């Protein structure tokens, strides 16, 4: 499906013009379509940092914009020729998938969004936006209500919470063994008479890459509301705040996103626990009187472990009211000043449907089989994302190690 050379030139001119403008990439539009949002989201994931230098990365930005606009135009041609009843694309936020969504919406075509399921041998098709949190809440209860065996559901749900606590990652998150590298017994001792609030930060790059699809954001960044929360806590006697920076595995997150929280540590009643600290997050949770999060699923886990939760952003759990979600600073102040609020816990049973969903959702592939990150099979035909040379080297090394053992 080819587009005219004149249109190709217009796309190229539009993409390269970004260098000459002072427009925020997120606001850069092609024919009034916000393709810059998808490019920005993709590059956040590519660089693994919430903020990247648009001047230093002009070339890759222009290439991504060019690709995105080209896909948009080709999908419009495809729709005009085939006149499909439905389009399916992966996720809904990337530079290559957002233009497909936008072209379909322009022509009022039904859209299904493909995503991975609860493990790599499953996929899921979403009728609505993947980051429509109320819709995802409905998906949770669709799975929960479909299974009639209550004992089975509870067993699977509890396994989720225990695995998370013991550092066993979800089967679709095999490299994220956060708490496995943390040790017990070194959590800061809580002084008598002190009320401890623990703020678990969300992963900055993941939030920024999806933020444009989230609705009703009262505080558009967790750093902004954290500053306000600190001001409130400093003025209240006998309170302390521990900021647990989202842990990292390997070098896949930027030092900027990890280190920017350090400046809030005042060596008094505000303590920052760094991303690579071996202080155990769950032991820290156990010592808290209140868990605070920015829409993170740690809220669900905290409810299971019998903790009161305040969320400063909407989460997949919001529709089920697992956490107190203030609408303004006044509500935060009132809530914190009356620490009796911390004792009004939500039943741990309300967390179970979410854990069950994370463990089971998705449709099993018919022909595809996942073995590991570098090796998958389609109808017994081996496929890999690695180059032939790197694939050969990895397989050779693995074979040598196996023989030596």
Any overview of this molecule?
The protein is α/β, with parallel strands linked by helices. It folds into 3 domains: 5-116, no CATH class; 178-343, 3-Layer(aba) Sandwich (Rossmann fold), CATH 3.40.50.2000; 368-404, no CATH class. Helices cover 40% and strands 13% of the residues. The strands form 3 sheets. It has a 5-stranded parallel β-sheet, sandwiched between helices. Strands 1-2-3-9 form a 4-stranded mixed β-sheet. It has a 3-stranded antiparallel β-sheet with strand order 10-11-12, with no helix packed on it. A hairpin with a 2-residue loop joins strand 11 (375-378) and strand 12 (381-383). The longest helix is centred in the first third of the chain and has 25 residues, at 58-82. The radius of gyration is 23 Å and the shape is globular. The mean pLDDT is 90.
